[in-house]
Amino acid sequence: MHQIRLMRPGSDGHIINEYGLPEKPPHDWGFLPAGDAAVTRKVTALGDCWRIQIKKGRRLQSLGIWAPKDNIIRAKQEVKNMRSTPDYAKKRARAAKSRDQKQAAYTAEFEQAVINFLNFHPVYKAFETQMAKLITAHAIPIGSGTVARTQMIPLSERASRAVTAWMRHQTTEYDRMKIARVKGERRAVRRKLAERSSGLLKAYRKGEPIAPECPLQKALKRTN
Fold it and tell me: What confidence category does residue 96 fall into, taking pLDDT thresholds of 50, 70 and 90?
């Protein structure tokens, strides 16, 4: 059974091991940066390795692995050979087509969920459509890391959070605010801005007259 140890970056050529102590990789080991999942899987299947991780927010991000150099060389060559076959090229083409179809379907589904959440009065339907397209275009790309890409919460909640996030950046001074580095302060600021955004949306849902200086109007004109 191969051993995969979880560690984090250190200094002076050391790695900080699972016990919080500095440790140097064996002399015949090399570092394989993250980025090619197929090669990484091959290397981890061939023998022991150290996975180097850092914490980004609440998530752990892999920077790569330390493993015997021979294993890394062998894994890269095996993957290269596998990717050079006609069957692999056909498989990749089928997978790409399938991803594109799924992405197109999800884009339409997500945009409709945003429209359902906005629920503007008929007099503001054009704004609703424009806003839904802008939010979807920002939130939906694969690898964007936005809430729209998670499967952990219902679609309707993904849509509402995406609207809130878009409005925070487009209709408030959030990006230029100097927020104190105090635990919970950024969350509190976001909550206040979300309440302000909710107030803006109410006027559009009720069909009330909108002032020219409305920040949402300005944002929509700016991004038209």
Answer: very high
Question: Which helix H or strand E contains 224, and what residues bound it?
Answer: none
Q: Which pLDDT belongs to residue 147?
A: 80
Lateral strand order in the sheet of 15-16: 22-23, 15-16, 4-9, 49-56, 59-68, 29-33
Residue 118 neighbours by CB under 8 Å, 6+ apart: 128, 131, 132, 163, 201, 204, 205
- What's the chain's average pLDDT? 91
What is the mean pLDDT of the segment spanning 44-56? 93
CA separation for the pair 130, 211 (Å, rounded):
18
What are the structure tokens assigned to 23, written together?
Answer: 């440790």
Neighbours of 112 (CB within 10 A): 14
Alpha helices in 65-214 (DSSP H): 69-83, 86-118, 125-139, 155-170, 185-206
Rg of the chain in Å (alpha carbons): 24
pLDDT at 167: 93
Cα–Cα distances in angstroms (integers) from residue 115 to residues 31, 130, 146, 155, 217, in the given order = 47, 10, 18, 12, 17
